[in-house]
């Protein structure tokens, strides 16, 4: 295990790739461990990832590896938006193994996932989470775009192309897991 903190960066041995079938158990365990002690956890994040996969709604699923061990994971899935905008996606769940948090692995996963989404032709992406974290990736909140009764600042979006969508956003049914 590499524990040397390199100015907040992942180690040079951290690499990303798309999930493979043999990663599924490790992703589930990692997701449970990452969210275990977070106050905003629903406790269902691992089940959500599994439900999205089962519904072929894991548009992007990336793992971060160090010494062939999975230390991070990020999922993206389609969302629907009241104004009818197409090719919009939701970021999350995103998980980094507790002992590897704060080393830039989340940043690697988010930046790479967003770049892939954009390259695949997505128009934009939404995220539900701490605004202090996600604004650094270009997410901003828009009072015209809402998710349930979540306060506006906790629900953010990044537009890749096209007009900013408006109205209520619905995540994939896998999030009801
Ligand atoms: C959130 C998470 C994915 C971030 O990954 P990470 O590899 O730890 O984050 P990074 O190293 O890329 O970024 C670290 C920076 O983000 C900040 N940060 C990390 N998690 C944060 C959070 N939940 N809210 C606000 N800031 C956060 C750190 O303070 C640090 O700030 P700094 O760069 O100014 O020092 C990871 O901490 C995690 O798995 N947390 C538990 C699960 C979770 O909350 N997932 C997100 C749900 S919205």
UniProtKB/TrEMBL annotation:
Keywords: Transferase
Pfam families assigned: Acetyltransf_1
Keyword Transferase found: yes
InterPro entries cross-referenced by the UniProt entry: Acyl_CoA_acyltransferase (IPR016181), GNAT_dom (IPR000182), MshD_Acetyltransferase (IPR050276)
Signal peptide range: none
CDD domains xrefs: NAT_SF (cd04301)
One of the record's GO molecular function terms: acyltransferase activity, transferring groups other than amino-acyl groups
Coiled-coil intervals: none
All copies of domain N-acetyltransferase, residue ranges: 14-157
PANTHER family in alphabetical order: L-AMINO ACID N-ACETYLTRANSFERASE, UPF0039 PROTEIN SLL0451
Name of the featured protein: GNAT family N-acetyltransferase
Organism from which the protein derives: Rhizobium lusitanum
